[in-house]
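Structure, all two chains, one model.
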Amino acid sequence: MEVNDLVIRFRRDGGVSHAVNSVSFRVYEGESLGIVGESGSGKSVSVKAVMKLLPKHAKFEGGDITFAGRSILPLSEGAIRHLRGREVALIFQDPHAYLNPTKTIGAQMVEPLLFHRMATKSEALVQAIDLLRQVGIPSPELRVKQYPFEFSGGMLQRVMIAMALIAKPKLLIADEPTTALDVTVQAQILQVLRRLKQERRMSLILVTHDLVVAANTCDRIVVMYGGRVVEQLPSQALLSQSQHPYTRGLIACTPSVRGERTLPTPIGGAPLNLRRPLPVGCLFAERCPHCMERCRSESPVLKTVALGHEVACFLAEPQTSGVSA
Amino acid sequence: MLRFLGRRVLYMFVAFLCISLVTYVLMKAAPGSFLSMNFQEGGVSQVAGSYNVSPIVMQSLVSYYHLDDPWYVQWFYYVKGFLTWHMGTSFEYPGMKTTHIIDTAFPFSFRLALMAVVTALIVAIPVGVITAVKENGWADVSIMFIAMVGTALPSYVVAVLLIVVFALWLHWLPVIGYTQWQDYVLPVLSLAIPMIGSMSRYLRNSLLDQLHSEYVTGVLAKGGGMRHVVGSHALRNSLLPLVTVVGPQLAGLMMGTVFIEEIFNLPGLGHFFTSAANLRDYPLIMDSTLLYAGVILIMNLLVDLTYGVLDPRIRRSFDMG
């Protein structure tokens, strides 16, 4: 799947909010990609746009999304429905909000199969029970008859994962799947995600604000700021070779358990207000410790500094170690 | 579940006693009595004549109605009479037991009310769904405008309009009578049309609440269409607020509709009950009020049980007690 120069704006109350300002990324088959950024950096909007699940006041202003070589934006609602749930599945941040409170877990889990006419109701229920067992839910035969309010957040997120996987999608998009959960539960959920991704050889996009989560789970990481991609690099290179000041800032403000007891260093300033007209030049300039004259007049483009490593910063330099570009 | 029902029935009984007490006090506090009201208006010859009856008859009447007992004893006998369905005789219609009046008029009013509410629901549910799905589209805006006009028209105005069009101009339907099905069309429509307006607006709004919630995105993400979203998820959830308004509305209609009964000359409860209140027909006032209270209480219980059917969370809370 590939996203190119995507631009999305929200119109509300006469104002315009610049949610996504030219974002490009791609996920290959069987690969996992982490999209990282703080709240309002456009990461959630970008992935919901992939399945055209944005509210009506969201407008595509440019760019293109292709899935398996097919452009998605011009597709009709009916055609896009064939992709949703079957080719591309989504997991959301708050499982309680994204499940109907008055239907049983079983009835909701089988829906992807029923919508796409892939199984009868009873066959689908057998598959649902089997999947619930795979994601680690005890006595699934009883659980399918229960309602969402009878599950804990962690259990419900497992249900969401099972539900997303029931139609065997090629790509799973997890939009902050662990943000609403306890840290211990978080780790379990991520482990389930990693394991199932391996077993099923599917692609995974993990959207998170947590750099550590992304680095531990994904092959590659895309860092977003103000609705733009600022850096893109392999996970192993994150700690040692990231170059964008924003990425460095995110790493610096991640508390470390091992090593010295140091307070995390926050990034100064406030996140970009996307409701105002976008500033000229680099969007991060306001908060950047290395800001130069040039950053305020000219917008940096992504440039390749190493294989699979791109940075949108004037200070970025080609890596000497490793394979140079 | 049984514990819930038991508690609710007990609670209904207490509420019932309170209502009967309040009604009794208010009724007695209203100036005038059946005899004095009729004396002033010079009506009901039989009752006027009863001023001249022998003291023995008078005495037996007084003791029959417990008129020489303290007020709480009188109240007690009214409630006991109602609960055992031995309610005594109407003042206004001598020789006619109030149970008889209720027995004949209540089934009629019940039938009329049920037909009106069912008709209204049959129209209002599709209208509510269409307008909610086409939110702010031209269909939504124009239908909601018509619905608002419909709500604003009182049922007796609708009745007159319907009579003029369908009976006077087109000669399609009869205006008076209650023996064949055609007789019911105009009264039912007169009651249903204002309800259709309010019900469809109600359903539209509660359905919109559902359609704007996040689980709808969840259904769409699974590959469902609007048909699935509304048909198997949102509509059911949006019925809860609708049930809340329809229940009491149905109960109200069951107790008769004065205007519609008068216009179409129907033998419903409304006519008997309003005249009872005007003429201080104590037994009939008490019985009609207690009947009304009973119907409302039962309807509320039904509404609560319907909640349980529609929402598993409420169903669970029944068991928790």
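Residues 98-133 of chain B form the longest helix (36 residues).
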